[in-house]
Specification:
By secondary structure, the chain is mostly helical. It has a domain at 2-62. The chain contains three helices and two strands; from the N terminus they run H-H-E-H-E. The protein has helices at 2-62, 64-73, 91-94, and strands at 84-88, 99-103. The chain has a two-stranded antiparallel ribbon with strand order 1-2. The longest helix is centred in the first third of the chain and has 61 residues, at 2-62. The N and C termini lie far apart (107 Å). The relative contact order is 0.05.
């Protein structure tokens, strides 16, 4: 009779240890899923911001007149070419041909 009780106690202890191992595995799996969810939500936020920036850029490129009008309202204008001159650097000093655009 004592051998039967001992086997029952070993089965109960084994089941209890298996339950503990399964619970630890499930906890780690939930932790992994929550970390993956956090990373995906951050990626979604970054991609949404990038999408919004690209939509603004697309709108500006599709309607350059509007962009010109907004620039005029802000007092922005391109710099006239008369304000720039191109000089050539000495190739002996720089190691190759280089051009520099400088404002006058």
């Amino acid at each position: 009779m004592k051998a039967g009780i001992r086997r029952i106690l070993l089965v109960i202890a084994g089941g209890f240890l298996l339950l503990i191992v399964l619970e630890a595995g499930l906890y780690n799996w939930r932790l992994l899923l929550s970390m993956r969810y956090k990373n995906l939500t951050e990626l979604d936020r970054q991609l949404s911001w990038k999408r919004d920036e690209l939509l603004v850029e697309r709108a500006a490129l599709l309607n350059p007149e509007r962009l010109q009008r907004v620039g005029d309202e802000l007092g922005l204008a391109p710099v006239p070419l008369q304000h720039f001159s191109v000089i050539r650097l000495d190739s002996d000093l720089s190691g190759g041909e280089q051009f520099v655009c400088m404002e006058q």
